[in-house]
């Protein structure tokens, strides 16, 4: 009875739809080899005319014609030669109604769907990180993972502290790479298949200790095959999908390969040991199927801010605008 | 650099705890969209009742010029700290949530609109001179601060205060403010069984300087004066402006090239008369606008 009631209410609400919203229905990623669709799209396997879009392009948000960014520059009263810059900005996904209409048209042509309904993917977590070219690995600022509506903007402040005026001028006037914002998006609830297994760390470390070293390519794939046979509990129903997911996980766990000297020979790959994997790794369950999530990224290059956003730059010491005070 | 798409999702840490689902709780796995009168997404109740929940997707700062007198900036000189009081408005697609609710209620009287109960909420502000992030965590009660406007007070460091009191700062972002809502709801595990899950929703916006547009909202408590810092402008430019403003009966003071409250008021009067942005800033562009067109340039 309860299920019927839920169904009746949802059906009633569905009659109000302009667009679908992601629910528990299985969805799979739409392949778009020719890039005709400017979003990552997911198609609802239960409702073939329902598509969920995930914008993967972001830019500085704007309101009433001006970009939401401000840069305050101020000097240390004790060391006048050094300055600090505080940058506050908002970013927003680029998903205009024109682009969505174009996407709907592309979907209609590509899939023969008569009335495709496009809606935002509702379960998306985002995180912002800011990088400067002087610190390409350590971010200047990193936000927390948050469930953020795709149709809203997100704001962040980052600071470049105690640098010379010349260095700050270089960062603010670089045409590319001065400051970059990485937006990570994690989309959840997307189904790709059906199989599950649990990693047995003891078995994995036993195998790692025995092999000692693996190189990218066939050697690594062989290692993955072996660990699936030995280190995964259960009998997966779809071994190829499990291998793909396990391969992704183990690459992330090991990090990027690097040069190692083994018996007077330089080798590019990963060093393994009997304690490479931690006990808590065994609590990981490899799930192929619901719930499943995918990580996407978008990079915003802030570019030459001295040129593009001169009025947004304020020297707090003297009230001047732009980058002239840094020259 | 192009970020390489990674597939991480098949690995899931089974951290959620299966539990009895309490009444009146949101269903995170489902959402439905309304097309009229507003295009918005809401979340149904986990119990499948005729109740739907609204979660903001935006945050706005109340207009300083029209909001309550409680909102504004009080300081005791630009080299010291100040207190900024902001009224923040949770929105959906830029519309305050109470407005959306009354519109939807009028059109769909059989649906009950509600706000999810908060486990906790958090307010955060960042900006120039903040060595550490200033945060306030409120206890979980009712639907505040989802359901309605909420007011937060921020202790500003001197640099942020100075930035906010610079006249031109209304053209740029100075602070980032955010509200986080920790909401407990229902989700489903891989086998479809319901589990309790806490999710943090975040909305944020930036705060621009406002003293040039709403001078009454910035008060120097020691001097008893309001408005921005008055910077030292080019005396020749100011003297020329004073002359023009006197010619238009907007200024009755001395032609001394000094930019004080009387000249500022005259500049505002000129901007008002000519339907320009009333910021009281005597820029070279404004002087160019004020200057009569030379005879040689007339068509």
Give an overview in words:
The complex is a heterodimer of chains A (327) and B (299). Chain A has 327 residues and is α+β, with helices and mostly antiparallel strands. Chain A has helices at residues 2-14, 97-111, 165-173, 201-211, 218-231, 239-254, 305-308; strands at 27-29, 40-44, 50-54, 58-60, 62-63, 66-67, 69-75, 82-93, 117-120, 124-132, 141-142, 146-147, 154-164, 179-188, 195-199, 213-214, 232-233, 258-262, 265-271, 284-288, 293-301, 313-315. Chain A is built from seven helices and 22 strands. In chain A, strands 4, 7, 8, 13 and 22 form a five-stranded mixed beta sheet that branches. In chain A, strands 10, 11, 12, 14 and 21 form a five-stranded antiparallel beta sheet that branches. With 299 residues, chain B is of the alpha+beta class. Chain B is built from five helices and 17 strands. In chain B, strand 7 (72-75) and strand 8 (82-92) form a beta hairpin. Classes of the chains: A alpha+beta (327), B alpha+beta (299). The interface between A and B is large, with 84 and 73 residues. Strand 20 (284-288) of chain A pairs antiparallel with strand 1 of chain B, so a sheet runs across the interface.
The H-and-E topology of chain B, N to C, reads as EEEEEEEEEHEEEEHEEEEHHH
SS-based structural class of chain B? alpha+beta
* Residue share in helix of chain A: 25-40%
Task: Characterize the biggest β-sheet of chain A.
Answer: 5 strands, mixed
Q: Please indicate the percent range of residues of chain A in DSSP E strands (runs of 2 or more).
A: 35-45%
| Share of residues in strands of chain B | 25-35%
Number of strands of chain A: 22
**Helical stretch count of chain A?**
7
Order of helices and strands of chain A: HEEEEEEEEHEEEEEHEEHEHEHEEEEHE
Biggest beta-sheet profile of chain B:
7 strands, mixed
Backbone structural class of chain A: alpha+beta
Helix content of chain B: 10-25%
């Amino acid at each position: 009875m309860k299920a019927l009631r839920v169904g009746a209410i949802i059906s009633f609400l569905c009659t109000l739809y302009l667009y679908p919203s992601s629910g528990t229905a299985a969805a799979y990623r739409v392949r778009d080899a020719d890039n005709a669709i400017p979003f990552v799209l997911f198609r609802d396997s239960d409702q073939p005319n329902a598509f969920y879009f995930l914008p993967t392009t972001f830019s500085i948000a704007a309101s009433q014609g001006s970009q939401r960014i401000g840069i305050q520059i101020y000097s240390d009263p004790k060391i006048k030669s050094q300055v600090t810059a505080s940058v506050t900005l908002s970013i927003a996904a680029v998903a205009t109604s024109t682009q969505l209409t174009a996407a709907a048209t592309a979907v209609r042509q590509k899939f023969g769907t008569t009335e495709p309904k496009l809606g935002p993917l509702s379960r998306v977590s985002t995180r912002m990180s800011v990088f400067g070219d002087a610190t390409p690995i350590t971010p200047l600022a990193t936000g927390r993972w948050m469930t953020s509506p795709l149709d809203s903007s997100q704001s962040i402040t980052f600071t470049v502290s105690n640098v010379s005026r010349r260095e700050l001028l270089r960062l603010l006037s670089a045409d590319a790479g001065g400051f970059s914002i990485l937006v990570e998006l994690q989309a959840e609830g997307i189904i790709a298949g059906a199989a599950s297994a649990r990693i047995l760390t003891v078995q994995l470390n036993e195998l790692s200790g025995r092999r000692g070293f693996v190189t990218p390519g066939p050697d690594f794939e062989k290692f993955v095959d072996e660990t699936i046979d030995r280190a995964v509990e259960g009998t997966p129903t779809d071994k190829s999908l499990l291998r793909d997911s396990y391969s992704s996980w183990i690459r992330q766990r090991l990090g990027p390969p690097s040069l190692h000297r083994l018996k007077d020979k330089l080798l590019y790959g990963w060093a393994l040991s009997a304690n490479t994997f931690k006990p808590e790794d065994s609590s990981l369950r490899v799930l192929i199927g619901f719930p499943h999530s995918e990580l996407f990224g978008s990079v915003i290059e802030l570019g030459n801010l001295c040129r593009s956003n001169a009025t947004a730059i304020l020297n707090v010491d003297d009230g001047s605008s732009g980058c002239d005070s840094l020259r | 650099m192009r970020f390489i798409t990674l597939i991480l999702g098949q690995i899931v840490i089974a951290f959620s705890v299966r539990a009895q689902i309490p009444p009146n709780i949101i269903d995170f796995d489902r959402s439905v969209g309304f097309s009229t009168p507003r295009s918005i997404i809401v979340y149904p109740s986990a119990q499948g009742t005729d109740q739907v929940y609204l979660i903001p997707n935006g945050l706005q700062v109340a207009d300083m010029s029209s909001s309550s007198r409680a909102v504004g900036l009080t300081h005791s000189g630009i080299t010291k700290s100040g207190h900024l009081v902001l009224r923040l408005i949770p929105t959906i697609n830029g519309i305050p949530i109470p407005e959306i609710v009354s519109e939807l209620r009028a059109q769909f009287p059989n649906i009950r609109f509600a706000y999810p109960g908060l486990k906790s909420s958090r307010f955060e502000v960042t900006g120039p001179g903040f060595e550490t992030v200033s945060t306030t965590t409120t206890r979980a009660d009712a639907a505040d601060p989802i359901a309605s406007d909420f007011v937060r007070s921020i202790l500003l460091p001197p640099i942020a205060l100075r930035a906010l009191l610079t006249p031109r700062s209304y053209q740029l972002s100075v602070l980032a403010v955010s509200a986080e809502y920790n909401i407990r709801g229902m989700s489903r595990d891989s086998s479809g069984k319901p589990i309790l899950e806490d999710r943090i929703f975040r909305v944020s916006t930036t705060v621009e300087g406002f003293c040039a547009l709403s001078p009454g909202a910035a008060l120097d408590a020691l001097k008893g004066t309001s408005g921005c810092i008055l910077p030292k402008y080019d005396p020749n430019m100011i003297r020329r402006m004073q002359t023009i403003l006197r010619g238009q009966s907007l200024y009755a003071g001395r032609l001394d090239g000094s930019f004080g409250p009387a000249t500022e008021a005259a500049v505002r009067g000129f901007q008002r008369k000519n339907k320009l942005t009333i910021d009281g800033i005597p820029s070279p562009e404004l002087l160019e606008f004020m200057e009569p067109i030379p005879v040689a340039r007339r068509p």
